[in-house]
From TrEMBL:
The lineage of its organism: Bacteria, Pseudomonadati, Pseudomonadota, Gammaproteobacteria, Cellvibrionales. SUPFAM superfamilies: OsmC-like. Pfam families: OsmC. NCBIfam families: PRK10738.1. This is OsmC family protein. It comes from Luminiphilus syltensis NOR5-1B. Gene3D superfamilies: 2.20.25.10, 3.30.300.20.
């Protein structure tokens, strides 16, 4: 995996992945940014959510669950010192579907947390307290 990040001006950067996709990052105004885009640490948090939700949906599809919507709500705390690393992170999955089996949803979230999500597992290995939870919404009642 390759990529590069190039400085544009102030606290604004553009990152380009090895697959050719780009994203703009910016900082807060008090640090020379214009607050026009994501901060780098926000991208790490969102990337972790993307990694985990991909795993969960993939497993639910393989187990033939009728998922119609899924989101992962992310919350992270950062250390109050430099470096301001993540100290805690929680991923809460909200899975909506028809006749979803709780055991399947629970297992998908557990497997993502323990085996498949490289991002959350990497943070946990670095000492971040990473929690996972889920809620199931019945599409017929929603």
């Amino acid at each position: 995996m390759k990529g590069q990040v190039k400085w544009l001006d102030g606290a604004k950067f553009v990152g380009e992945s090895g697959s050719g996709h780009s994203v703009v990052m910016d900082g807060p105004e008090d640090l020379g940014g214009r607050n026009e885009s994501l901060r780098p640490m926000e991208m790490l948090l969102l990337g972790t959510g993307g990694c985990a939700i991909y795993d969960v949906l993939s497993m639910l599809k393989k187990s033939r669950q009728r998922v119609v919507d899924c989101r992962v709500e992310l919350h992270a705390e950062r250390a109050d010192a430099v470096p301001a690393v993540f100290s805690e992170m929680n991923l809460h999955f909200v899975v909506t579907g028809f006749g979803l089996k709780e055991a399947q949803v629970k297992r998908a979230v557990e497997l993502s947390a323990e085996k498949y999500c490289s991002a959350s597992i990497m943070f946990a290995a670095a000492g971040v307290k990473v929690g996972h939870s889920y809620a199931i919404v019945d599409a017929e009642s929603a």
